[in-house]
Amino acid sequence: MRVPEKILSVLRKERNFLIATHINPDGDAIGSSLALSIALESMGKKTYVYSRDTVPGFYKFLPGHNRFISNLKNALKTDPVLVLLDCNSPERAAIEHYVLRSTIVIDHHETEKDFGDVRWVDRNAAATGLMIFHLIKSLGIKISKDIATNLYTAISADTGTFRYSNTYPGVFRASAELIESGAEPDLIADYLYESWDRKRFDLLIIALNTLEIHNRIAIMYITRDMFRKTKTKPEDTENFSNFPRIIDSVRISAVFREIGKGVWKASLRSKGDVNVAKIAELYGGGGHKNAAGFKIQADLKSAKRSLLKAYKKLN
Amino acid sequence: MRVPEKILSVLRKERNFLIATHINPDGDAIGSSLALSIALESMGKKTYVYSRDTVPGFYKFLPGHNRFISNLKNALKTDPVLVLLDCNSPERAAIEHYVLRSTIVIDHHETEKDFGDVRWVDRNAAATGLMIFHLIKSLGIKISKDIATNLYTAISADTGTFRYSNTYPGVFRASAELIESGAEPDLIADYLYESWDRKRFDLLIIALNTLEIHNRIAIMYITRDMFRKTKTKPEDTENFSNFPRIIDSVRISAVFREIGKGVWKASLRSKGDVNVAKIAELYGGGGHKNAAGFKIQADLKSAKRSLLKAYKKLN
Lengths: 315, 315
Prior knowledge:
Two copies of one chain form a homodimer. The first copy, chain A, folds into two domains: 5-193, inorganic pyrophosphatase (n-terminal core) (Alpha-Beta Complex); 198-314, Diaminopimelate Epimerase, Chain A, domain 1. The first copy, chain A, is built from eleven helices and twelve strands. The first copy, chain A, has helices at residues 5-13, 27-42, 73-77, 128-138, 145-158, 169-180, 185-193, 198-208, 224-230, 276-282, 300-314, and strands at residues 16-21, 46-50, 68-69, 81-85, 103-107, 118-121, 212-214, 217-222, 252-260, 263-270, 286-287, 291-297. In chain A, a hairpin with a 2-residue loop joins β7 and β8. In chain A, α2 runs antiparallel to α5 (145-158), α4 runs antiparallel to α5 (145-158) and α5 crosses α7. Chain A is elongated. The A-B interface holds A 160-165, 167-170, 172-173, 175-177, 179-180, 184-187, 189-190, 193-198, 201, 205, 208-209, 211, 213, 244-249, 271 and B 160-165, 167-170, 172-173, 175-177, 179-180, 184-186, 189, 193-198, 201, 205, 208-209, 211, 213, 244-250, 271-272.
């Protein structure tokens, strides 16, 4: 991977940087930002790392996670160069109301906006973390254990820990070097996938006991009573819908969660080409092709039926 | 990884081989055996691939999976050299009642017996598949797509698809080469993790409902009656013990499966430094640090208590 010389020269020349990443930051956004911050500071630079939204609890193992700020006041006083990471428009980072004198964009998402003075958008890169890995090496900075842990996590998050189709040889070769620099694959996987508390797992078992499969659609539900009994919260259900995906015949996995009396929130995950955003839109919801959601006021039976009908209609 | 010259010379010199692997073969056993068979046949050798137990359904995507035989009659007529893979004693492969003129042992398990004419047991190897990868390269054989798919699957299976502590740099570098030779990480992960049939998932839910956690040890059990009711087989329980590992406090996840009246097979998975091979050895079983098993004749309650006691004793 070739790192644009222009980016290297700006990073070498300037002193102050504001690293900003997208709203609802994921592992790639967080890990890339922290790794770049640590690397630049090791060169004697001053960096601020900005995210509008707080870092999810299970990423708090990342070295430097407390560098994140959600207020730009102090950062702006230093007249920094903006480095936009894992996104390529100021709106995605919720910084569209600020004017900065110069901007570097480093991203692997499809280009939407023509923003920034120096842009490096490589849609073939598996993760922004992989681009930052090559960038840091090109700057001649030693990859410390802290940098390696952040970059390995970034790459893990965006490749489904090496299970998605973007797991190409360069991903593995970079990851091998990151282990040599101190990243610990098992510990990182533990933090990412094996850090549930007991009551969350209990709720999962209860939800799995409600599983029905109709016409390649897996449906589970969680009532307010189940939340109460297990002392869990709605955010504890994140990823629940991934479990029934294990079944080969399942194309859509849905979780209906009771959010009020007779009101349900459906969370949908699909495999391959099945577009659940289209289903969600039929009920005023939205999302992406493989992950979407909608709200519906109905009894549980009707709510489930609506989903099955929508799938039939669209297929 | 250095491949013993003695093994290479026997493989080059001899014509007929019987490749045998352990009972209840897992991904590493199956993938390694098939890869070696395909490689040797490409050199003009004749091979038989033996497993006492049938290949679990979800490994049937592996190229050459129908090479497996469970009857040795024809193989023995060729007076073959035995190649024992992913185990190191004839008992583990259920071939202790046959006498072969010469034996090569290739394995990475900790529990070692003194058997075979040429032994290559490397307990630091992440997978037997990784050893076979280097062996095939040392033989000067081109790694075909079929060989690559088998070896990538073998390595995936024994490293939890790169999530266990045996995910060291050499694992990634070999895997990168295997992708270059045609292995498809996303397809293999789909086959390994998202191709369960419905009844297997039903059995998982039933098993999860038996979950108890004592002193950081998660225990589930599956009775013969549960197998009967869900029309499932013992091999359907592969990976079940990984689910309770999701809970942060769990250090060991165990599944007790009833294999006869009052006889249980315990399958253990651990996190980090907890060595379950040591626990398994206390009861005449074996395995690796993070994945091991043993058999015990006892009622369920006593069987569970034995595990808890063994853990206490060793910690």
